[in-house]
Amino acid sequence: MRFLLPVLVAANLLAQTTTPVAKVLEAPLRAHLAFLSDDLLEGRGTGQRGADLTVRYLETQLQVLGLKPAKGSSYRQAVSLLGLKTRVDQSTLSFLGGGACATPRFGAEILFGSGVAKVELTFDAPVVFVGFGIDAPGYQWDDYKGLDARGKVLLMLVNEPAPTAAEPGLFDGPDLSQYGRWTTKFEMAARRGAAGVLLIHTTASASYGWPVVRNGWDAERFSLATGSEATPLQGWVTEAAARALARQGGQDLDALRAKAESRDFRPVPLDLALKGTLRSAVRTIEQFNVAGVVPGTDPALRDEVVIYTAHWDHLGIGQAPAEDTHPGHGTDRIYNGAVDNASGCAALLAMAQAAIQAPARRSQMFLFVCAEEQGLLGSKAYVADPLRPLARTAADLNLDSLNFVAPTRDMSLPFGERSTLGELGAAVAKASGLNVTSSQPDAAGGYFRSDHYSFVQAGVPAISVGGGSDYLGENVPALRVQAAAYGQRYHQVTDEYDPAWDLRGMMQQAQFTLDLGQAIANAATRPVFKTAR
Description:
This protein has 533 residues and is an alpha/beta fold. The chain is built from 14 helices and 21 strands.
C-alpha cells in the first residue's frame, strides 16, 4: 500500500516538534563504544563466541538502564540461521573450453559458496553471460531473453545499465535501484533454476574493493533458515579473471559489457563449462535480536511504538590478512568493527539511558539486530515476526557507522523525501541549529544496504540517519581527509576504536536521532509515505 501526503498531516507533525528533554551523554557512549569494539568481543561475528558475549552485554545494559523486556520477560528474539562455510581444501571448480582448463585461485581471483544446505555439490554446467542479470518489466528490460537458465552458470555484471540522455530516469537515474543489487540478481537467477551465479567485480560498480568481498565470502555465510533456497553456486570473480574466462570462451569482456548496456541485449553462451565439486560445512544456529522498551506515557498512544535500530554484528574472527594489505596488522585476525557498527550500538545504549529519564507519549523500542552483515537477516526476521504490531509501529530510525571525526553544522537523512520523516527531521534539525543536507546520488545502493530497508519493505516509514559533512574545526580539510580515510578501513581489521577520537559528532548524531524519535513519539499523528518505497 502506498500513502499520499495530506498537507494537514505534515503540518501536524512539524508543529509538534518541541525542544527535547532527554540528553545523550558522552561518557556512556564512549564506554560502550570502547567495550563493544574491544578484542574481548572478537569482532562480534555471527555464529561465533563474540556474538554470545555481545548479546549478553546488550541485554544486561538494557536491564541496568531499566528498559522493559520487549518479549515477555526476555530481551531476546531468536533468529534461526543456516550457516554455510566453503571447504576450500576439498573444493575444486574449473572452467573447461577453448582447448584449455582454467582453475582460478580461491580468494585471489574467485570467491564462491553454496546457496543450498548440502554438504557436497557437483557441477558440469555451461556458462552464459547474461549482462546485468536484470529482468525489470517496468523498465521494459530483460537480460534473460529466450534463455532457459535451468542448470546453467550465469556470469553477470554488478550494478545496472547507466541512464542515458534519452532515458535519464532509467533504473532510478543516478541512484542504484533494487534491480542493481547483487542480492536481487541472485534471487532472480534462483527463480529461474540457474545452477549458479558469478558476479564480475569492479571497485567502481560494487562501490568497494575486492578485499571487502573476500572478507565476506572467505568465511561462513548465513541466510534465514526459513528463507527460500538460493542457487547451488554463488560467487564473485575479479575483473581480470572474468576477462580471461571470456577470452577462453571465445568472447571479449569489453564487447560483452558494451552490448549489455542496450535494451536489445540477449544472453551470450560462452564456450565454457564449469566442472568440479563444492563441499561445505553446513549447520543451523540460533542468533538473537536484543530489544528493550521505554513505555509510553499516553494511554491512547502507548501501544504504538517508535523503533531505533542498530546492528550489533560484524565479521568476527577471520583469516589473517597479508602483511602488505594491513601494515602493522599482519597477524590481526579480529575484525573489531568499531565504526561499523559498535558506534551505532553504543549510540543506542546512550540514547536509551537518556530516553528512560524522559519518556514520550508513544513507547520507544531500542532494537539491536543480528546478522546485518549477512544480508539484513535480523531486521528481516523482526518484521516477519514483530515484537510489536507493524500496524502500530510509527517509524524506524536506524543508525549504522556514525561520525567519529568532529561535530558538524548538518545532518543527513538519505531518501527522507520518500516519507514525512524528511520534513519532520528538517524541523527537528532546525530547532537544534542544524541543517539537513539534500539527498546525494546513491550509486552504491546504500538505501538498500541498512536495516531500515527491512521496515520500509514491510510498510513502516523508516530511514537511516546519517552524520553530517560540514565539519566544525580549525583544519576542516584535515577532517575531511580523516573521514575519507575510513574507506580503507571498511570491513578490515583496521576498523578499531581510537581513544583520541572526538566523539562530539557521534553524540550530535545520536542526540539528533533521539530528538527525531521523540518528536515522532509525541506527535498526534504518525509519519506516512509520500512516494513509492
